[in-house]
Amino acid sequence: MASLQAALKNAIQVEYQLEDSEVAAEPLPSGDERHSILFYESAEGGAGVLRHLVDDPVAFARVAAQALQVCHFDPQTGEDLRHAPNAKEDCEAACYDCLMSYYNQMDHRHLDRQTIKEYLLQCSQSTSTSSPQSISRAEHCQHLLNLCKSDLEREWLTFIEKSNLRLPSHAQLLLETCHTRPDFFYEQEHAAIYVDGPHHQYPERQQRDQTQKDCMEDTGYTVIRFDLLESWDKVIEKYPSVFGLLGS
Ligand SMILES: [Zn+2]
């Protein structure tokens, strides 16, 4: 885990041209018990690369290939190239060109690039999907599907899932302040989604919808309606910060 942490951190830096201080990595729950690795952008504001890593299904695979290269392996074949291109001496377990850095001195005795080669080769062939919850994307999607109240809502969710876009965090969540229960909700993005059938085109219904929308927007939510007047693709393209990028 220590080797993997160093390799991925260095690879993210190379792939996104970041300084050593811009991305930080920490073992969780602790350095003595490493179950997962937490990456975070340590520079103020951040470059948004970690969000990109989660949103682009092949970005992590590219980082894994970069990590193989950092560790002196051919990223395609896994062949051991023994050292960095301009280094004179062979690297057995780790060197300052691959896994060692000033920042991970406590880990130096654990570092061994050979132990992570197979795993990185597998990752370099992978695609990633992200889940807004701690359960997997598939489980979360099924949970949302079960909450859907109409075929149209199920159709919308399936469309989002198939297009590999960001999934909503909730379905049918009551937002009490505005007395409304949007079909779907993106908690982190503060966006409420309504998937409207033909009955929403009646004037009095439209008036009620508008009053709710005003209330929601005053409360700081973005209201996004999917209706029959505009294609779903078009609506999605207007809100990349909510849905991610279509066709990525
Ligand atoms: Zn090395």
Entry summary:
Helix content is 37%, strand content 13%.
Task: Give a verbal description of the structure.
The chain has 248 residues and is α+β, with helices and mostly antiparallel strands. The chain folds into two domains: 2-123, no CATH class; 137-243, Endonuclease, Chain A, CATH 3.40.960. The chain is 37% helix and 13% strand. The protein has nine helices and six strands, in the order αββαααααβββαβαα. The chain has a four-stranded mixed β-sheet. Helix 1 packs across helix 3 (59-70) and helix 3 runs antiparallel to helix 4. The mean pLDDT is 91. The structure holds zinc ion (ZN). Zinc ion is lined by residues 72, 91, 94-95, 97-98.
Helix content: 25-40%
Distance between the termini: 30 Å
How many strands?
6
Please give the count of helices: 9
Portion in beta strands = 5-15%
* Sheet with the most strands: spatial strand order: 3-4-5-6
Count of individual domains:
2
Global structural class: alpha+beta
* Heteromolecules bound: zinc ion
Query: The biggest beta sheet, please?
Result: 4 strands, mixed
Q: Could you give the order of the helices and strands?
A: HEEHHHHHEEEHEHH
Low-confidence stretches: none
Topology:
Layout: H1 2-16, E1 23-30, E2 33-41, H2 49-55, H3 59-70, H4 117-123, H5 137-147, H6 151-162, E3 170-171, E4 184-186, E5 191-195, H7 203-218, E6 222-226, H8 232-238, H9 240-243
Helix pairs in contact: 1-3, 3-4
The structure holds zinc ion.
Residues 72, 91, 94-95, 97-98 line the site of zinc ion.
